Amino acid sequence: MLICMLISMPSTSVRIDRTTHEELKRLANRLGKTVGETVALAVRRLRQERVGRELTAPLSQEEIEWLDADLG
After folding, report:
1. What is the CA radius of gyration of the chain?
2. Alpha-carbon distances of 59 from 13, 63, 65, 66, 70, rounded to whole Å
3. What is the model's pLDDT at position 17?
4. Whole-angstrom distance, CA of residue 31 vs CA of residue 10
């Protein structure tokens, strides 16, 4: 499914240093993915981690008050 999405999407170039590029190629090879697929997976993982941190963060006082509000 990811492959189909990447093939049908227009592409662009991203400039990265050689060391990062080599590591990205090694990682893609270990995963059996293309470099583009590996970047897409990494972006998705970063997004998921950010959402996870937001969901586990303590509630603000305003959020607590809203949740405790008397609705009736």
Report:
1. 20
2. 40, 6, 10, 10, 18
3. 97
4. 23
How far is residue 68's CA from residue 54's CA, in Å, rounded to a whole number? 20
> Which residue has 């697929």 as its token pair?
37
Structure tokens at 42: 């990494």
How far are the Cα atoms of 2, 8, 36 from residue 5, in angstroms, in the given order?
A: 5, 5, 11
| Domain residue ranges in the chain | 31-56
Residues of the chain with pLDDT under 70: 1-9, 72
Kindly report the pTM of this predicted structure: 0.68
pLDDT recorded at residue 55: 94
